[in-house]
Amino acid sequence: MPSIKDTELEMVQLVLPEHANVRGTLYGGRMMDWITTAATMAAMRLAKGAVLLASMDDLDFLHPISIGDVVTLRARVEFVGTSSMEVGVEVFAEDPARGDRRLTTASHLAMVAVDERAQPRPVGTTLQPADEREREIYAAAQMRKRLREAQLTDRREQAARVNDDVTGGVTHSIEISRIVFPEDAVLGTMMFAGRLMMLLDEVTSILALRFCRCPIVTASIDALSFYSPIRVGEIVVCQAALNHVGRTSMEVGIKALAEHPLTGARRHTCTAFLTMVHVDKEGPKPVPAFSPSTAEERRRWDAAERRRKVRLERRARLTPESAR
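RE: above sequence
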């Protein structure tokens, strides 16, 4: 029976210009893709087959990563259920010229082992914590799984929620659609979740840029769950709206729908809330002021205020650890 350490996987990436935004720092969507890739590989090794991303916990970017930096992602499976696996990923960035390594972000993801029809299948093995430290990690991952299951309503019910108009009744909104191509899939015909998160970040960035007309970076993405897979040949519909504006930051809500190209039937895939920040070489800078003027904008603003309070408290608790 493997221990948590036996599942560890390290993935190293050099940040190239194609990975960066106009400021020369790593594009947030690319980081989400890399995190998902590392978690997927660790889960696939243990499950010996295809896996899908079911959920990702809150993700905060603590430090910018520049072109030329070396990014190291460390993934490990921390708990195994019948079909699901809790995977932890730590991300470190290193400036080769200075040799300093810093923790940039950390995330926890829930992966599900699936068969060729994208239906859950047994993982086929369990973990045996090797020492007290691993027992603590195992217990924390088990608790995360229980909390997530308690908060998440039925996935089929969520997948059917396609009629909530994300862009209606708001001043700043956008809808972008694209076809899922074979290169968007990793195994079989299902769109890779990392590719989808890159798309969500891109659409969110476009909306934020159009609002503030200033350089922005992705600061965080709140926890999100995936309710329905998207297959090659289907249309991804991304609907985004501006929810809240602070002094230097903006919250954008975005909903992803999977649309069958022949019938037009749609499924709700996920809803995410991303925080974008105006940053220049000196640090965060103010964004244009915005006041909600419609009932829908005020509803979204109030909900975003509650999320912002939780987000600020969460970031205040984060204390970057030194590289190990």
